[in-house]
Design goal:
472 residues; Rossmann fold; six-stranded parallel beta sheet; six-stranded mixed beta sheet; 15 helices; 18 strands; 35% helix; globular
Length: 472
């Protein structure tokens, strides 16, 4: 009995230590019926970051509010607002402390916000046992039977970056009196990332470059006739001129012209990237892919001409209404849809305990209506084009999109399938290599643009500046 008491004291002490590492979080059980308690662990940032963490949290809230509707039940919906743990820092020890706290709080499934958790995912998997983990915006290692309880969600953010850049180029050319205030004769869009990651950060940057390249090619005649202005990549300002997109060269993940090496507030300012883009490279529009560093862009005041902004991850004009006159649009990872979709496909969320201990089955229906008892544990989730989009309308300056993605394949006159625009873009990016210097190379963008413009029906999904954009 003494040994048991001492063991329990050790366990409790470990839990208290974990809580102190995570922060001032009251160690209460997670809310929700047993079997349905989903909890978020942040990536070290604040929950209300108006970006990735907050959007992932909203996904859990969405799931908890839709259980009854999805399963035709009553009384299972719950308030998931308190179901989160804020990791105190962006390092392994803080993440692991967060996982321990989630286990202590009785989570039936855990959502990890951001690719930075990939380095500690095996520890999370072991701690959760047979309970499902969703790694949002990252890919776990499934070799040798590892991480069998982990669902990896990756976003084809090259689609969102492409659409956002193309739409921004359209808007800028429709509002020439508001852009190119430096009289460069071109519209300069600049970008930067926090830390390099091919399928979490860099695909946004690559998609942006592709959107610019395709816009210029489709509108080449109008640009040559001075009817429109060419769109250039501000980062390519070298020797007093802007190099073409095809000549873009990113030297690697530590290239200080492209990455701030953090996702911390102030990182874009401290690194010098922001000052260089605005003061030296004369960016008219900036696309920051670095979480809270969008605040660095918005708060920059040491210039006469403040740049317009393309938001990231969420429709950020809604998060910063005071800056609505600067948001053209946002490149969006539709986390609420993606995460709630995959929670329905989680092995550990197939039952719920109702009052008096009754167990009911839930989430037995596939979101694609293909199988019964759908489970994605131990796999990379099937991505959907609707998970990566360009926001428009509302308080955004851009009120329409000129890019439309479809998941329904068409056929030509010979009944042969026509490749979808979304698939062409995804395939092109997948074939660019694994090293930053390989895929963030202008030659890969030029090759992808060639492929897009060779699609038999690309005009159906890419509209020009003279056409009416898509409403949805």
């Amino acid at each position: 009995m003494r040994k048991f008491t001492m063991s329990m004291q050790a366990v409790l002490l470990g839990s208290i230590v974990s809580a102190s590492v995570v922060g001032c979080i009251r160690p209460k059980y997670a809310y929700g019926p047993v079997g349905q308690r989903v909890l978020l662990v942040t990536d070290g940032g604040n929950l209300k970051d108006k970006s990735f963490n907050e959007s992932a949290h909203n996904a859990i809230i969405k799931y908890a509010n839709e259980i009854d509707q999805w399963n035709h039940t009553q009384g299972l919906n719950y308030n998931a607002e308190p179901n989160y743990v804020e990791a105190s820092d962006h390092n392994a020890s803080a993440f692991i402390a967060g996982y321990k706290m989630a286990v202590f709080k009785g989570a039936d499934a855990m959502v990890l916000a951001g690719f930075m958790h990939a380095g500690t995912i095996e520890t999370a998997s072991e701690l959760m046992g047979d309970k499902t983990i969703i790694l949002a915006d990252g890919i776990a290692d499934y070799s040798k039977g590892k991480n069998k309880n982990v669902i990896s969600i990756s976003f084809n953010s090259e689609l969102a970056g492409f659409a956002a850049a193309y739409d921004a180029a359209i808007w800028a050319n429709q509002n020439l009196d508001k852009v190119d205030r430096h009289n460069k004769g071109a519209i300069a869009i600049g970008t930067f990332g926090g830390m390099s990651s091919k399928y979490s950060v860099d695909n946004y940057l690559w998609g942006l470059m592709l959107g610019i390249e395709v816009f210029n090619r489709i509108h080449q005649q109008g640009i040559e006739n001075k009817k429109y202005k060419k769109v250039v990549l501000a980062n390519n300002y070298i020797n007093n001129k802007y190099a073409d997109i095809r000549d873009t060269k990113v030297m690697g993940p530590n290239d200080s012209r492209w990455f701030t090496q953090s996702f911390e507030l102030g990182g874009a300012t401290r690194s010098g990237i922001l000052n260089r883009l605005i003061e030296h490279q004369k960016a008219d529009v900036i696309f920051p892919v670095a979480g809270p560093q969008i605040l660095d862009v918005m708060s920059y005041s040491n210039t006469k001409h403040l740049p317009y902004i393309i938001g990231v991850d969420t429709d950020q004009v809604n998060s910063f209404p005071g800056y609505k006159n600067r948001f053209i649009n946002s490149a969006v990872k539709h986390l609420p849809n993606a995460i709630s979709d995959e929670l329905k496909r989680s092995a550990s969320l197939k039952t719920a305990q109702v009052k008096r201990g009754t167990i009911v089955k839930v989430n037995q229906t596939d979101i694609d209506n293909l199988t019964d008892f759908p489970v994605d544990d131990g796999n990379i989730a099937k991505t959907r084009a609707s998970w990566s989009v360009s926001s428009f309308g509302g308080a955004n300056l851009s009120q329409r999109t000129y890019i439309k993605y479809s998941e329904v394949a068409e056929q030509d006159a010979d009944q042969k399938p026509i490749m979808l625009l979304s698939q062409a873009i995804k395939n092109a990016f997948a074939e660019t290599g694994n090293e930053t210097s390989q895929y963030l190379d202008g030659s890969t963008v030029a090759k992808a643009a060639d492929t897009i413009l060779q699609l038999k029906n690309y005009q159906k999904y890419i509209r020009t500046i003279t056409e009416t954009g898509f409403d949805a």
